[in-house]
């Protein structure tokens, strides 16, 4: 089994990214050949400050390594260290109907939010397909918001294979239903662009402030509460065992527990879960040569596959 996922360096990573994609991808490294890359070409559709793009790119590498990515098992690389994806994206563009891209929610959502309607933003799913197909991955761990993009990838792979012969592996999205959409502090999907995130490496007062801001209904302390509709509960669930979830749900329903208590519990759980990762990150920051080495080695490994795929695709379409 070959596994691949990517994450954009367009802001500090949050617990939606962590539970939706990072954790599943890191866990899958035990079961197959794993590739995780930092989608800096994609981030250019929204980040146009060179210094920020550079810093945020290395930040994602630090975050993944701190969160348990094992570079002996997973190839971690920068998308821009594998430019073969662009040639592949062009080959895919020539068989990609406009309608397929016009239907993509992500493009419509971003332009509705005021992001300029550039060609790069529109063609974003084709580059994403090239990322996935270049390494011939079978499994793509993502959050629900990326499902449609993986479907576009499948569609393009099938069209290409039908037109030119079997070149691409048709991938499957891997979406864990319980973390498919992690809510942000306002209850919408947690997202960098909604400014409703809880960052993985936030600590101390800023973290506490963020957690205390999670939106709830206005039930009084003594009232029974519904855990299933509560954002605090939804976030606690991600960090709890089944028994802990059941016990907390019981306290919600019994009444006598205020949202302040639930938020304090959430804060403790976040601190407990991420404390070892914060420690590891502090050590890694002092070893940037090591981090650079990991990224280089990862790009070399992934590029072997990308070159092989590209060679096959070029031959299939008649460029060679
Ligand atoms: P990006 O950078 O927006 O998000 C990275 C991953 O985090 C998941 N995610 C969430 N999951 C659950 N709940 C949330 N609130 C939440 N917010 C984000 C996303 O679904 C994603 O899996 N287009 C991709 C990057 C990309 C890519 C690829 C991914 C480029 N090429 C190839 C997979 C394969 C993106 O913008 O993700």
TrEMBL record:
Its EC number is 6.1.1.2. Pfam families: tRNA-synt_1b. A motif ('HIGH' region) lies at residues 9-17. Keywords: Aminoacyl-tRNA synthetase, ATP-binding, Cytoplasm, Ligase, Nucleotide-binding, Protein biosynthesis. It is an enzyme of class 6 (ligase). One of its GO terms (cellular component) is cytosol. A motif ('KMSKS' region) lies at residues 189-193. GO terms for biological process: tryptophanyl-tRNA aminoacylation. InterPro entries: aa-tRNA-synth_I_CS, aa-tRNA-synth_Ic, Rossmann-like_a/b/a_fold, Trp-tRNA-ligase, Trp-tRNA-ligase_bac-type, Trp-tRNA_synthetase. ATP binds at residues 8-10, 16-17, 143-145, 182, 189-193. It catalyses: tRNA(Trp) + L-tryptophan + ATP = L-tryptophyl-tRNA(Trp) + AMP + diphosphate + H(+). L-tryptophan binds at residue 131. Homodimer. This is Tryptophan--tRNA ligase. The lineage of its organism: Bacteria, Pseudomonadati, Kiritimatiellota, Kiritimatiellia, Kiritimatiellales.
């Amino acid at each position: 089994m070959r596994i691949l996922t990517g994450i954009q360096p367009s802001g500090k990573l949050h617990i939606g990214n962590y539970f939706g994609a990072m954790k599943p991808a890191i866990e899958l490294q035990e079961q197959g050949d794993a590739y995780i890359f930092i989608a800096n070409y994609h981030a250019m559709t929204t980040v146009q400050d060179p210094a920020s793009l550079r810093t945020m790119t290395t930040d994602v590498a630090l975050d993944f390594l701190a969160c348990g990515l094992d570079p002996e098992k997973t190839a971690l690389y920068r998308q821009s260290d594998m430019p073969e994806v662009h040639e592949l994206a062009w080959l895919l563009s020539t068989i990609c109907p406009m309608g397929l891209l016009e239907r993509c929610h992500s493009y419509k959502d971003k332009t509705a939010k005021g992001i300029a309607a550039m060609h790069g933003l529109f063609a974003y799913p084709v580059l994403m397909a090239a990322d996935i197909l270049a390494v011939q991955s079978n499994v793509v761990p993502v959050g629900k918001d990326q499902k449609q993009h993986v479907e576009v990838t499948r569609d393009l792979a099938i069209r290409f294979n039908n037109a030119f012969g079997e070149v691409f592996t048709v991938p499957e999205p891997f979406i864990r239903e319980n973390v498919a959409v992690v809510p942000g502090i306002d209850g919408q999907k947690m997202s960098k662009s909604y400014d409703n995130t809880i960052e993985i490496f936030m600590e101390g007062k800023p973290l506490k402030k963020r957690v205390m801001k999670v939106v709830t209904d206005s039930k009084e302390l003594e009232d029974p509460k519904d855990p299933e509709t509560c954002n605090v509960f939804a976030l606690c669930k991600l960090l709890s065992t089944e028994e802990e979830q059941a016990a907390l749900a019981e306290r919600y329903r019994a009444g006598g527990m205020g949202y302040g208590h639930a938020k304090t519990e959430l804060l403790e759980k976040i601190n407990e879960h991420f404390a070892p990762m914060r420690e590891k990150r502090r050590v890694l920051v002092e070893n940037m040569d090591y981090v650079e080495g990991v990224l280089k080695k990862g790009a070399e490994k992934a590029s072997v596959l990308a070159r092989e795929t590209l060679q096959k695709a070029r031959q299939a379409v008649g460029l060679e």
